[in-house]
Design a protein that fits this description.
434 Repressor (Amino-terminal Domain); 0% strand; single chain; mainly alpha
């Protein structure tokens, strides 16, 4: 159970959420979430963990199980490698991928607005 806070932190960072955003969306205080992430509160209630998992869009077990986070990292790494190989096969250069940065920023903005409407 000691790693729950670390799991939440790592997933939150991968999802690009700030501490404030996750706390607000989960309906918990920012300080409480901070205490969980820093393992100052090593025994948060299952209801709180469930809320956080829902916002992070991950299975509850992923937050609780320390081995699952490693497995998810490996899956994500493999997905990125597959995507990079697909780009390479199709003839897309690294410099061309960088040109998509504005599009990516727009999609992130769009997703954040969609989440706010839910």
């Amino acid at each position: 159970m000691r790693m729950i806070g670390r799991n939440i932190y790592e997933i939150r960072m991968k999802k690009g959420l700030t501490l404030s955003e996750l706390a607000e969306r989960a309906g918990i205080s920012k300080s409480y979430l901070s205490n969980i992430e820093r393992n100052l509160n090593q025994n948060p209630s299952i209801q709180v963990i469930r809320k956080i998992a829902r916002v992070l869009d991950v299975d509850l077990k992923l937050l609780i199980n320390t081995d699952s986070i490693k497995e998810e990292n490996q899956l994500l790494d493999n997905e990125w490698i597959d995507l990079a190989n697909e780009f390479k096969k199709s003839g897309i250069e690294k410099s061309q991928i960088k040109d998509f940065k504005q599009l990516i920023e727009f999609i992130k903005w769009q997703n954040q607005n969609m989440d706010a409407k839910k």
